[in-house]
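SAMPLE LOG
Freezer: B-3
Tube label: C17
Construct: single chain, 337 aa
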Amino acid sequence: MPVTIHKLITIERHIAEEELFHEAATGEFSRLLRDLTLAIRIISRDVRRAGLNDILGITEDENVHGEQVKVLDRHANDTIFRAMDHGGHLCAMASEESDGLISIPEQYNRGKYVLLFDPLDGSSNIDVNVSVGTIFSIYQRLDPNQNNDGSMADLLQPGYKQVAAGYACYGSSTVLVYTTGNGVNVFTYDPTIGDFLLTVEKLQMPKRGATYSVNEGNYHKWDANMKRYIDFLKTPTDTHKPYSLRYIGTAVADIHRTLHYGGIFMYPRDSEYPGGKLRLMYELNPLAMLIEQAGGRATDGSLRILDLEPTEIHERAPVFMGSEEDVLEAEQFLREN
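STRUCTURE (predicted):
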């Protein structure tokens, strides 16, 4: 359950205190996180002023997935790149909006980390003022003693090797949720002082919830086991109250609710996307790390998300993540003949 903080702790102080858990820390990783929070503050400001700043709407471009690029998508992507390209902490980046590896500009130093990010999750919600978010995932490069350009192998690491993961959710307030493997902490942005303050420490999910989050419009595309599981959730029995459907369509917002209240978030395989729809590297790995750190469970229906071995940077996978008992129950339905 959430533990609300009654003392003022900024994210800068929290990052510095987290560094004490790592004896060999050099401060490089802490500086990387500070650069990233700067980008998130800028995106937060621009999301809130999008209609006034003329950065709503779509461009004439398509991203690597064949989707039309929103103006704010591209702006968020560029903001993160410009905040992270020159600090000397990274050897490479990858973005859901870009094709392949993003190199560090030639004039800047290379560091021992790689960053993967979804600059603006929930793009379809941008123009109607529904919550959107930024998701990030940080790995150490395979050989941290190198100081040259990173490679695709440095990016294509399984999720259990992440050294940090998190997201920002731009809603009624801007919240930043992240973990470095030492629990999940939630920060809320205070625009009057220009900083993130710790508001929930060591967030822990309930073992079971009362809501499910899935795009039920895809019901006709699911296999029989998946349909039976959803029907089970909605049908009251003597021992089972029906679950409530809660689906926003921005993974960050759906996961943020699930982290706090429990339940299950799903994007299963279907006849249109037999390999799943959400991206393993940009969405599922970082969100799965947060879910597990909060005491939850995240699988593709049978295998742990964080153990999946990626084969390409824009790989997709099905997902079931949330309260441990809810996900185990879903897996049981999916296994049945």
